[in-house]
Amino acid sequence: MHIRSVRGLLMFLVAVLALSASAFGQVRISVTFGPPALPVYEQPPCPGDGYIWTPGYWAWSDDDGDYFWVPGTWVEAPEAGFFWTPPYWAWVDGGFVFYDGYWGPQVGFYGGINYGFGYFGDGFVGGRWNDGHFFYNRAVTNVNVTNIHNVYNETVINNTTTVNRVSYNGGEGGVVARPTAQQEAAAHERHLPPAAAQVQQVQAARGNRELLASANHGKPPVAATAKPGDFSGHDVKPAKQAGAPYKRPAPAERARSNETAAQPSGTDGRGASPVHPNDLPPMDRPAAPNTGNAKLDKKYQEQQQTLQRKQDQELKKLQQRQDQEHQQLAQKKGSEAQKQQMEQRHQKETEQLQQKHQQQQQRLQQRQAPPPKPEKPR
């Protein structure tokens, strides 16, 4: 059976389904009840040049059967000229499906969700790139001009404290928005998955029981942080209030579908849940190096190919072991409960390997990234 390369995408809930026309990734398990409204909170000050704001959002904990809040934070852009397209939830084929965020040269579609601080549902007005440097719009971002001099003021409509703070697209009460032609085009440009610092932020949030929606009722005690993973620093911002009243649904209403959500146009349409390595969609590989130095480009390309071969071998080895376990359980005529437990373990193993490969790819790209250009005299 052909082994497909793992796709470099942050895995913080469960494995990614496939690349869609309007977002970087889609989680395969749909949730039958929607996430809470977005809480009201302040943005901590930007910690330094090159950091871009990534707004907070509700993620899903499969272990807890509950949403949890991932605090907004400042993250260094992985490449000059790249922007963050936030993740979002959307009502698809009878369930709420998660679309992960990504880095790219243009801001893509993020469900029309008004996250505030420059992400007002369409594009981003919190800053812009100029000659390899990021300039911050002080009208919508918290920037200390004593420390950061790349700033400008551009008035934009900012009604984040009064508008509907619904956190999902489509469905009953959801945001009504569809991707524009420009956003569709942005979805097909070269992307990078969430940075390692963003992975750290999600992991820290997932381990904090106070960030579960059932515990904070839509008002998380840590709504935003100045830096990823720092939930106790001076600049941690709690939610001022919940975006709307939230009540945890009754158990019957919390029942979730284990079926794969309908595939949007542009996906592979296989419909198989990626529990095993064979089910994973192909990984988005970086473009061929183009540093202007042919010898260096060849070296970088060989490094990428070596990493890809190693990752393919690891996937193949894991698939073979899981196939053997399937055969052994079938010979023993294992019960349905045993089969389910085995599949859950296989899913976790596949997710862990996928996350490992994503981090390896990201570290390689960071090592191969060109050094920053020296600043021009002011």
What's the layout of helices and strands?
Layout: E1 25-26, E2 29-30, E3 51-54, E4 57-61, E5 66-70, E6 72-76, E7 83-85, E8 88-92, E9 95-100, E10 102-104, E11 127-130, E12 133-137, E13 151-152, E14 168-169, H1 181-187, H2 196-206, H3 213-216, E15 224-225, E16 257-260, H4 294-331, H5 336-368
Parallel strand pairs: 6-15, 8-14, 12-13
Antiparallel strand pairs: 1-9, 2-16, 3-6, 4-5, 7-10, 8-9, 11-12
Domain tally = 2
**Termini gap:** 59 Å
Q: Output the structural class.
A: alpha+beta
Supply the number of helical segments.
Answer: 5
Question: Which residues form runs of ≥5 with pLDDT under 50?
Answer: 1-24, 252-273
If you average the pLDDT, what whole number results? 80
Kindly estimate the percentage of residues that lie in beta strands according to DSSP: 15-25%
Shape: globular
* Order of helical and strand elements: EEEEEEEEEEEEEEHHHEEHH
Rg, rounded, reads: 21 Å
Strand order of the largest sheet: 1-9-8-14
Give the fraction of residues assigned to helices.
Answer: 10-25%
Question: In total, how many beta strands?
Answer: 16
